[in-house]
Amino acid sequence: MRVLVSGGAGYIGSHTVIRLVEAGHDVVVVDDFSNAKPTVVGRLEALTGTSVPVHSFDLTDVDKTEHLFANETIDAVIHFAGFKAVGESVAKPLDYYQNNLDSTFSLLRAMRRHDVRTLVFSSSATVYGAEPRLPMTEDLPTSATNPYGWTKVMIEQVLTDVAASDDRLRIAALRYFNPVGAHVSGDIGEDPSGIPNNLMPFVAQVAVGRREKLSVFGDDYDTPDGTGVRDYIHVDDLAAGHVAALDRISAGTTPMSIWNLGTGQGVSVLEVIKAFERASGRPIPYEIAPRRAGDIAASYADPSRANSELGWYATKTIDDMCADTWRWQSKNPNGYPDA
Ligand SMILES: NC(=O)c1ccc[n+]([C@@H]2O[C@H](COP(=O)([O-])OP(=O)(O)OC[C@H]3O[C@@H](n4cnc5c(N)ncnc54)[C@H](O)[C@@H]3O)[C@@H](O)[C@H]2O)c1
């Protein structure tokens, strides 16, 4: 298939481009580089040994999106493009609703006009809301605790309604747990701009000397060591999950599918710190700080639906995730170069 990867220059999109090419698909990327560096493209081409066509524009632009579909052959879309920082979404809710929803509407309209019926969407475990039952199964009710999360809940609803209106559509929403790690080459990885919002890139920046110490937000949760527990999933396993979902929906007859992509294992903040110290051979200084508003004690998937229906399993351990993150961070202490 020729797959349009929206947000394909970003963290998860770039790793998925590699997996798609390895699986024999052709790839076209659209990204406005609002949260990515153009230098990732050369690295993707070097790693895949193929040229990766890139269209650089904002998907909320309906005319440009239409022009893209009119001029490229596209069999399926994987839609990663969107803003993703929870705290920023609280400060700038309109930017989040507009970017995440309008980009999805543009794509869905262009897909309909050009008879493209297959779509895989980046959703998130955040749609399970503030007090989910554990482990989280796909049939739990959805809600959110911040505007970013609501964009995911709303887009899932839009996709469900659109799929119900046309039984030729093949749509999947993939609910990611906590993606971490990097490509095994160490040449592509997560490159947050500014202060990282997520634990693993922050730990990596402490290890490499870019930041002095880590703040651990809360050590009095109802978890084995008191720190927050999350289901970390290697980005390469996540990327493989997209290829599996794409294959499954395009061969199937179900208009709308939802799958959790996680390992099913909860790992605490202190366990991540210890694993990263093992991987890097460096100490990770940390201090205990107050809980962060909106954080929940524990989050982990029941991945059994994806396991049985997609034949997909997360294969990598927390030690693999830390080793690959460290390889990326130590080869690229300041992330991707500007040019
Ligand atoms: N990383 C996570 O922890 C996580 C967890 C759950 C879900 N997700 C979702 O997965 C998707 C990808 O996440 P990521 O971590 O790779 O983020 P990312 O920011 O690295 O990638 C998103 C890409 O989309 C591009 N983009 C944003 N808005 C755009 C627009 N209007 N038009 C064109 N390009 C646009 C950005 O430049 C960026 O390259 C997002 O939808 C995110 O919400 C991420």
Automatic annotation (TrEMBL):
Cofactor names: NAD(+)
This protein's pathway: Carbohydrate metabolism; galactose metabolism
Record InterPro entries: Epimerase_deHydtase, NAD(P)-bd_dom_sf, UDP_G4E
GO MF annotations in UniProt: UDP-glucose 4-epimerase activity
The keyword Cytoplasm is annotated on this UniProt entry: no
Coiled coil spans: none
Reaction catalysis annotation: UDP-alpha-D-glucose = UDP-alpha-D-galactose
Record keyword Isomerase present: yes
Residues in NAD-dependent epimerase/dehydratase domain copies: 3-262
Subunit structure: Homodimer.
Similarity comment text for this entry: Belongs to the NAD(P)-dependent epimerase/dehydratase family.
Protein name: UDP-glucose 4-epimerase
Species this protein is from: Gordonia hankookensis
